[in-house]
Amino acid sequence: MKLTLDSLLGLTLEMKRKITLLIIASIVGLIALSAVQLYLVNNTYQLKKDSFIKQTRDEVSLIDDHLTKIDSMRSEWRDYMIETAAEYKQGLIQRGQVLDRFGQKTAEMNPEFLSVLREVLKENAGSSRVQFHKKVRSIIILDSLQNDTLYSKETDSKSYILGDDFGGEEYELGQSTSYSEYTYTTLRDGREVSEMLRLNFETETLMNIEGRENGVLLQMKGFLLISTTIFLFVFGVLFYSIKNLITQKKIAEVKTDFINNISHEFKTPLTTLALATEMLRNEGKQHLDTIDIIERQNQKLQKLLDQVLDNSLNYSEIHLNKEFINAQDFLTALLDDFELAMQEVNMDLVREFNLKEEQILIDPFYLSTAISNMLENAVKYNERVPKLLFRATMDATMSIVIEDNGIGVLAKDQNNLFEKFYRAGNKETHDVKGLGLGLYYANQVVIAHGGSIVVKSSSGDGSVFTIELPLT
């Protein structure tokens, strides 16, 4: 028997270890799968985004065929800058005034430029989502001795833009540099002389695509749908598998507890039987007493086996032999027998009956066994002198309340308290011998009678069990 139990315990522990490792491996696998999936989605998004931008660039490049008006306005913009720079070279205005005038000119021209730009973009329907502008990069007066930089995008905070004013992510369509030579007349020593202005005017053309994210995601909708479906399917299968593994793990733990408990329960009567057998060999006088001991321990073993077999029944498998019983007489006899069985225990049992001398339709054997199990638990799981209140009342139903001052039940254990082989997680609970079948059996019997059991408890403050039974 010992080898068999040790083998079962070893197998159970090994099973628990494997299940734990499998759960950890599954979670790690799911995380890895999620990372790969996210990488693939992001990669696909970037590829689609690049393709989308390239396609838009190609569409915008078609505008070049319609840029006559835009080029004309850009030339006007540049020529104004040249003329203003010539005044600056003559000393008629300061550098700051040059940029102020150029800024004013840009602001004046921009509404007309935008109007022309909208017409051009409208002619190319594919480019209607594009925002477009030309921005000055630098304005430099070239000189053989030293160049004079009037404006640089890199150092000046102000921008000079013709077209849509947009921020955020922008894409370059191209750059252009205009080198212009402008001859102007100025006074030198009272004489008019002609001088040459060489100006470098550099611009860049930029675009922004409105709703590009939506456009890219729209192109990816099929891929995203398939990807999400596959991921949810794998996640669902894995979740279901892990849930089943956790259930199996719990069952394994319950089995381990059951094996431990039942081995302890069998150990005492078996040890007593061994001693009684030894006494039979050595002490002839005490044959009768020893036989009585053997008989009692044999009966105890038989009861243990019956409890394991009978108490495992589901309420649907319990066949009740109901009969009308006087409720008060039934409960009085039950409590008398209980006090007699517990006569060696120092306890205080208070009875409160309000049953109106009425009868109730029950199976007295099953119900008395169920209530006795609950009363025994109230005594066993108690670190103080047991104080029990047994209250029975009758109205539309018969209500039985068993209140004790025991160790109580943790809130997290209360939902599982009536499960087969379950024992609460209190350290004090596991110091008490038991199979974890008493409350399961009681609950199944009460349910078979059409009733219910409710528990209210907190750790260290005792428990209150309430049984509700129909009268018929």
Short description:
By secondary structure, this protein is of the alpha+beta class.
Described by strand count, sense and barrel closure, the largest sheet is: 5 strands, antiparallel
- DSSP, total strands: 12
Which spans of ≥5 residues are poorly predicted at pLDDT below 50?
Answer: 1-5, 427-431
**Helix run count:** 11
Broad shape:
rod-shaped
* Overall pLDDT confidence: 78
Q: In what range is the share of β-strand residues?
A: 15-25%
Radius of gyration: 47 Å
- Cα(first) to Cα(last) distance is 47 Å
Fraction of residues in H or I helices:
40-55%
Secondary-structure content class = alpha+beta
**H and E order:** HHHEEEEEHHHEHEEHEEHHHEE
Description:
It is built from eleven helices and twelve strands. By secondary structure, it is α+β, with helices and mostly antiparallel strands. Helix 1 packs across helix 4, helix 2 (68-89) runs antiparallel to helix 3 and helix 8 (364-380) runs antiparallel to helix 11. The two termini are 47 Å apart.
